[in-house]
Amino acid sequence: MAWAMSRQGHRVLMAAATGTGTATATATAAKRGRPAGILKVVPVSPSLGEFLGVSQVSRTEAVKKVWEYIKQNNLQNPSNKKQILCDAKLKTIFNGKDQVGFLEIAKLMSQHFTKS
Fold first, then answer.
1. What whole-number percentage of the chain has pLDDT above 70?
2. Is the pTM here over 0.85, yes or no?
3. Residue 41 has what DSSP assignment?
């Protein structure tokens, strides 16, 4: 009987701790109000702005749009999926390179975002 009581008491404590942690995280996110880091919308270079059709965008959204373009136009190298074969439009944002590795994309795009 003592075990059952202590076990039930443990559940109450765990429920209280879980509820408090969730409430605190939600309150902290609500205080911020604005996205930060890679989710923050920032001005982009004219060449990336022309490619995306917007003058301001978050880094995550820009990379997402570039990957959508790559997949829509079948620009991945069929024999090596880690390589992107750049067409004329991609060359404008990838420094005129004919092909880039998929790990290079974030590095090449970073120059198009203004530092604030």
1. 72
2. no
3. -
